[in-house]
Structures are given as C-alpha cells and as structure tokens.
Amino acid sequence: MIYDLVRYQFVDESISSMKRENVLLVSLGCSWGKCAFCDYQDDKSSSVLACDTVNKKVLSQVKGREVGSSILEVTCSASYTELPFTTINYIRETCKEKGITTVILEGHYIYRDTNRFFTDFFEQYGIKTIFRCGVETFDEHIREDILHKGFPNVTAEDIAKYFSWINIMFGMEGQTLSQLEKDVATGLKFFDRINISIYTTVKNGPARDSKAIEAFYNSDLYKELKENPAIDIYDEWDEDNAHKVGHDEP
Ligand code: SF4
Questions:
Q1: pLDDT at 242
Q2: What is the CA(169)–ligand 1 centre distance, in A?
Q3: Which of 125, 155, 223, 226 is 20 to 30 A from residue 217's alpha carbon, by CA?
C-alpha cells in the first residue's frame, strides 16, 4: 500500500550542516523484510506503474541549483536495488536537469556487490554516488538476535568497504546510552556521516524505551551530537524535529 507521507524536503543550513534535498520514494518491496523495527517496508507497490507515477511526482519537486543544492538523498521503503529501473532513470534525469552532482542511495548490506553498477550508471552523467547502509547498531546481539538485520559477523570495517554513510537507531528497550556512545564512536571512525533515528514503536516490534530517549535528550551526548556536523538526528515523535521526510502528511 502506498502511504500518504511527506516525501520531499529541502534540508537547508538551519536543519543540517549538509544542505541537500531529500526524497522518499516508493519501492517494489523489500526482499529482506525481516527487520523487527521496520514498518515502512509496507509503503510499496508491486506495480512499476504505480511506483513510477508517485516517484515521478516526488522527483518533480527537486529544485537543485534553483535553491543552491547539488546533493539529492534518496530513501525508499526498501533498498535502492528495489526501486524500478525506470525510477532510477528518473532520478538520474532529474539530477542532470537540476544540476545535482551527488546522489545518496540507501540500502541493505546484502546488496553491496551491486553498488558498482549504480556508481557506473550515475557516473555516466558525471554524478557521484554515496551509499548509506542501515546498520542500526554495532552491538551484534541487538542487531542480529533482536533486530534481525541479517548481516551477522559483519564488522564496521566490512561495511565501510561499500558504504560511507550509516544509520544508527536508538530508543528500543535494551539499548543504553553507553551503547549509543560506542556506536557513534565506531560510526565516526569508519564512516563519513551518521543518521541517528530515534525509534518509533511499530506493531509487533521492540518496545520504545521512552525513559532512555528522555535521558538521551537530557544528556551531554545529545548536545555534543547535535553540534557534530557529520550527524543528523531524526525523531518522528518530536514535533520540533526538523527532518520531516517519512512523517505522515499533516
Ligand atoms: S532492509 Fe530496510 S526496508 Fe527491509 S525490513 Fe530491513 S529496515 Fe525494513
């Protein structure tokens, strides 16, 4: 089912140190589909026409040079490999037309071997590709036994061979501030940029630990991360959070 979501946002300097445009596209569905915290994989369609129709409309909002932006971050309800090829083409055409020179694609580690094909495809138009991986945590037990991310025994070094940005998630029962601190330290050591998502409860998923989240927002760690230009913090439950892509349409 294709949800009614905020699918485009211009992220200016008041929101992030990296000015960019964000789009949330509709995929054909996540073939992994097992991550315990994930309900956004339901935002999909098995119809290429349906995906393309929505995605074309979302991409038509990209402004590029008009707003002084040369970076487009693409997220979808699965991995970049699970967008229709026609949509991938629209992305490239949009970049060309709007003066976008860097495209960021997000996906699961299992698709790492396909990255080079995407790099080549965008490079044909002089567009650089950055790959972002949903890691969630480097705590192997939480990542694999609880979250079912599906890449056991994979280290930060392994991931960094293919991906230069990562997602970290915080706020599930069992997660601690000290683990987040370790995740961030590892993330900053091996990767260029970290997106931290504050966990939102999903049906049949892990419980949200509101106390841990409150403790995070009151911590020195939060103040430090907020000031770090290599980090963005996303929180769907925080009305004041500036990152709006993926939220329900008001
Ligand atoms: S790989 Fe991504 S889209 Fe698929 S289930 Fe996991 S988090 Fe959700």
A1: 84
A2: 13
A3: 155
Cβ of 246 closer than 6 Å to ligand 1, yes or no, is no
Evaluate: CB of 32 within 6 angstroms of ligand 1: yes
Instruction: Give the chain's domain count.
Output: 1
- Yes or no: say if 151 and 112 are a contact pair by the CB < 8 Å rule: no
Q: How far is the CA of 68 from the centre of ligand 1 (A)?
A: 32
CA-to-CA distance for 82 and 52, rounded, in angstroms?
Answer: 12
Asked, for residue 2, whether it belongs to a domain, the answer is: no
Q: What is the CATH number of the domain that holds 133?
A: 3.20.20.70
pLDDT of residue 22: 97
Query: What's the predicted TM-score (pTM) here?
Result: 0.96
Ligand 1, pocket-test mutation among 41, 80, 82, most atoms within 8 A of CB:
41
Token pair in block for residue 122:
């965008």
- With a cut of 80, say whether residue 250 has pLDDT above it: no
